[in-house]
Structure formats: C-alpha cells, structure tokens
UniProtKB/TrEMBL annotation, chains A, B:
Keywords: Isomerase, Lipid biosynthesis, Lipid metabolism, Membrane, Steroid biosynthesis, Steroid metabolism, Sterol biosynthesis, Sterol metabolism, Transmembrane, Transmembrane helix
Subcellular location as annotated: Membrane
Superkingdom of the source species: Eukaryota
Principal cellular location given in the protein's record: membrane
A Pfam family assignment: EBP
Full protein name: EXPERA domain-containing protein
Residue ranges occupied by any EXPERA domain in the UniProt entry: 70-216
Membrane topology: Multi-pass membrane protein
Family: Belongs to the EBP family.
Organism lineage string: Eukaryota, Fungi, Dikarya, Ascomycota, Pezizomycotina
Chain segments annotated as transmembrane: 40-60, 72-94, 125-151, 195-217
Length: 240, 240
C-alpha cells in the first residue's frame, strides 16, 4: 500500500497552507498549532497507558491472586480499551466541533494523531458517529467485561464477543472509508510522511483488529463448547 | 423529528434540477429516470420477499417438522436477511459507481429507495463500506445461522449474536451519520415528502434494529444460561 506517497501534484504546489493537515485545502475551524512537543505528548499518552496497565495489574492480583496470566492480560486489555474509548475517544466525540483549537492534553494528542487522519478535525459524519458509538457502548461495556472476568460471570463470553466484534467492525469501517476516499475519490487524509500513516493510522488502530479478533474467536469457541456440553447432557431445552 | 420538512430556502429555488434527489445540487453521474412504475417496483420486491419467505417455510417444515414456531420464524428471518444482504445490498456494493444509470430491477429499486437517501447514488464512503461489510459478512453468515438453527448446532447462539450485533451497529451508524449531516452540517439526503423519509429511510431500516435486537438479547440470555449450568456442574474449566 503506497497510500501516503502518491500525492496529487497540484496539492504539493499550495504555498503556506494554514495548517499541516491533508488534504491541504481542507478547512479546519480555528486551528491553533500544538503548544507541547511531540515527545512530550507521546510520553504523556504512554505514561497514562502504563499507569492504567500497572494499576489494573496490582488490583487484579490482589482480588484474584490465582487468575491465569492470559486472563490477567485480558482484564488489563479491557480496562485500557475502556479507558481509551470512554475518556479519549469520548473527549473527541464531545468536542468534535472545536478540535482544531483545543490546547488541552487530549486536544493536542488528537491534533497530533490527526496528522495521519484529518477527518478528526473536519466534522466527518462517519468518524464522529463511530467514535460516539465506541465511547458510549464499547467504553462502559469494556469495564463490565473486565469485572465479569474477575468474578467469572456467566455473561462474560457473550459480552466479550459483543465488545470485540463492535471494536473490529468500527475499525474495519474506519480503515475502509478512508481507503475508499483515497483510491476511488482521490481524497487523502494522511500527511505524506510514511510514519504518520504506518505509525499512527495503521498501527494504532491495528491493535483493535488483532486483539479483539483473538478474544472474539476465544469467546465463540468457549460458547460453542458450553452449548455442546449442555446439549450432550440434555441439561436444558432453554439453551438450544 | 421534522427532518424532511425544513428545506433550506435557497435549495427550493433551483429550477429544473437534473434529478429528483436531495440535496438538489448533488451530482449523480449518468442519471436516468426509472422505466418501471413505483407500484411495479415495490410489487416485484414484495413478491421476491414473499417467495423467499414461503420457500423457506416449506423447506424448514419438511426438514424439521417439529420445530417451534418462533424458531421457524427466526430461520425465515435469517434467510430473508441473508438474501437481501447478499444479493440486493451486494448488488449496490458491486455497482456503486454507476447506480444512477442502471435500469435493472435492482438498479431501479435502489434509485427508488435513494429518494429517501441519495448517498446510494453519490459514492458515499460510509454507505458503501457499511453495505459491503453487510453483503460480505452478514449475508453469508445469515445463511449459516439459519442452517445452524435447523440442525441445533452449538455455535448457533454466538453466531446469531454476531450477525445481529453487526446488523444493529451498521444500522445505527447509517441513521446517525445522515442525522448528523442534516442537523449539524445542514445537508439533507431525503426528499421532503414525509413518506420517503418515514416509509423508506426510517421503517425499512428499523426492522434491522428491532428484530436483531430481540435475537441478540435471546442469544446473550441463552449463552449466559448455558455457562451458568456448565459452571454449576463444574463441567469444564475451558468454558470459564
């Protein structure tokens, strides 16, 4: 995929664009350049994730000291996912109309990320609706799933499958819509530097394809196994 | 919701628009007016649905004569849904670049439906990607679920939940994106006559919120019940 490299010639001729986002001619209301440096922003984000991971690990080890490692990792994933969905993506959903001017930590982080996808600064209907659904549904439900794993709740697998499928579907549509606009309509939302496209747009979102893919597969398998056992023993007609 | 009624004044002044779709100034490549009458088109679509329903009913009653009525209805729903996803929505996904000019039955049906949502004729990235996912994933999987119900397969409920959630999510995004464009950006895709908005856009899609909602709830409940029984009897550590 050579997405960020083939910039239409006419776009590269625009002198002094009012912002660094692509397409260069797109209007970004009230744009203000970030005040923090990129290392400071990425450092703050990474530190936040590390703190969430660490605290979740400590709590789960105290509450359930004998939980297997893969289950501990799954709880940590859902707590981190839920935090990002609810707070970071929720922040964008609430402030979508004035993202270009925000100088808060989350505002600046979104402006940095938007170098790989300017739709976050231009009131794109799909990105806003998908992110709102993610913040409202998959955010809180991620915390519910994390708690259900800790207490071995019987609804853990159906809810884990729902959240994971929701994350995958939103992400596939996220990739697909911008690739369609690029390849069919010639509209590119990422800056041409490869690290924005591959590091931010591709990699940051790819986690939410691979990990939910594994978790969805595990939940579907475990559920099939549960129904097989119930059917074998003829335990209940309700469940068939 | 007064969506189709508050048309911006400047749009109503456009004389002799080249097509009947909203916004009136939107470009629809190679547009040709439908050759069939509206009753003929709607009659053909209804007949097609009735034939699929009837044939499914006859087959399922022969294969599984003692299947409870609600399960027969669920099989009929998934066969009809699968047919619409795979053939009707798949037809749009394959022909999206030239929808305005098609005079086939499906082409004319889409042009009639597009009076309530012109995005189907304008290469809208979200509508295309959502419909492609629906045709590729939920279409074939709907037939798989229908077969699984017939043979009481242990994977029936996890797959029924997946297809139903996929349908709901796509549909919610479908509603949300056009309502956002209408209310925030002032772009309206439906003609102003209320029956297009309420009859086509709202009602035709609302079926895919309500019925999958019930089926998703049933599958999640049945799965929770199965895990509860497996846990009670300590049948397997795999499933917890």
């Amino acid at each position: 995929m050579a997405l960020p490299l083939d910039i239409p010639a006419n776009k590269s001729k625009i002198a002094h664009p009012p912002h660094p986002y692509y397409p260069l001619e797109v209007e970004i209301t009230g744009y203000l350049a970030n005040e923090w440096s990129v290392p400071a922003l990425l450092g703050a984000f990474s530190t936040g994730c590390a703190v969430i991971f660490g605290m979740t690990y400590i709590i789960i080890r105290r509450v359930q000291p004998r939980m297997p490692v893969h289950e501990v990792l799954t709880v940590m994933w859902f707590v981190l996912s839920g935090s990002i969905h609810l707070f970071f993506e929720g922040y964008y959903a609430l402030n979508q109309a004035r993202m270009g001017e925000l100088q808060t930590l989350f505002g600046q982080l979104w402006k940095e990320y938007a170098l790989s996808d300017s739709r976050y600064l231009t009131q794109n209907a799909f990105v806003l609706c998908m992110e709102s659904m993610t913040a409202i549904c998959w955010g809180p439900l991620s915390f519910v799933v994390a708690s259900m794993i800790a207490i071995q709740h019987p609804l853990r697998h159906p809810l884990q499958a729902m959240v994971s499928l929701g994350q995958i579907y939103g992400d596939v549509l996220y990739y697909a819509t911008s690739l369609f606009d690029h390849y069919y309509l010639g509209i590119t939302y990422s800056r041409p530097e490869a690290y924005y496209f591959w590091g931010y747009y591709f990699l940051m979102n790819f986690f939410w394809i691979v990990i939910p893919g594994i978790l969805l597969y595990n939940s579907v398998s475990a559920t099939g196994e549960a129904f097989k056992q119930v059917q074998k023993l003829g335990l209940s007609k309700k469940t068939t």
